[in-house]
Amino acid sequence: MTEIRFQARRVLIAEDEYFLADALNRALRAAGAETLGPVASVAGGLRLLDVGPAPDAAILDLDLGGESAFPLADALIARAVPFVFTTGYDPAAIPPAYAAIRRVLKPAEPGAVLAALATLLKT
User: Fold this and answer.
1) Preceding omega of 107 cis (within 30 degrees of 0)
2) Can you give the three-state secondary structure of the chain, one letter per residue?
3) pTM, to two decimals
4) pLDDT per position as a tens digit, 22-48
């Protein structure tokens, strides 16, 4: 398998499961990415979007601390930032407006999430 690299890429991590957030953060950094977060809330993700340059991509848990992550997804879409959802929800629970967003089903392995991101970024 080809090694996935993310040099000079900024990736926002919005994930409220501590161990997955930590694993994603470590995997992205090992692949050369600069990570923003991880954050465990929509408000935290929106704050990160408001400072500095926009991320190149994002990983977005569909449910952040019991709150729908769709406002953060909308902010990413408005900024043309590609992202993947990590979720355990059935696809039917996702509104049609987000049907084209790539999903990685939980329990998610960091390698699967990075592979999905690499596809979006064509790395």
Assistant:
1) yes
2) CCCCCCCCCEEEEECCCHHHHHHHHHHHHHCCCEEEEEECCHHHHHHHHCCCCCCCEEEEECEECCEECHHHHHHHHHCCCCEEEEECCCHHHCCHHHCCCCEEECCCCHHHHHHHHHHHHCC
3) 0.92
4) 999 999 999 999 999 999 999 999 999
| Euclidean distance between the first and the last CA atom of the chain, given in angstroms as a whole number | 14
For the chain, which residues make up each domain, given as ranges?
Answer: 10-121
Report the alpha-carbon distance of residue 41 to residue 16 in Å, rounded. 7
Angle of helix 70-78 relative to helix 42-49, nearest 10 degrees, comes to 20
The region, left, alpha or beta by phi > 0 then psi within -120 to 50, assigned to residue 8 is left
CATH 3.40.190.290 is right for the domain spanning 10-121: no
